[in-house]
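Hi everyone,

Forwarding the result from last night's run.
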Amino acid sequence: MPTKNAQNVLKASEAAYSKLPKVSSELLTLTYGVFIQQIFKTTYRIEDVNAKLLEIGQNMGLRIVDDFLSHIVFERCSSFTETCQILVGSGFMYFFGVSGTILSWNEENSQCVFLLKHNLLNNFVEIPAHLEGLKYNNMLCGVIKGALNAINFKVKVEEVESTVYGANDDVFSISLEELLHDETGE
């Protein structure tokens, strides 16, 4: 169950998103597909493409978290679980217009699995058989990883299921590896 703070942030994110200029979802989908094709032209190994997508996503996540924090005012998160609730629910709403749903937590509350319905990046996508190891949504994994790293959470993010490989929904896993401390010791 989302905390009161997470619920307030989701409302603020929805309001802020409604005021932002929009880009056609088809344009985003097609541009992302072409972007991946360009990476393949410079790197021919699927593992290298996956790593590049993760790296690009991490760089985006570092910047996106600053934009989100500067536009959405809310109380400081009290835990990793609350931070993930806000990221999955409100962060995705603010930047992509879709909200994710946390499906489960492990006993230690250090790993969650969340569902992202209506992932715009996957529209019209068919992965050829020879590219089966491609982690098409690895850039999203990198965005999450970079955003959480920027606020002192070292995490591992993986896509568990993907609609581009026949699943009904896109399901991701976020695992806390370490709580980082900044120069002030916080």
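The first helix runs from residue 4 to 19.

Cheers,
N.
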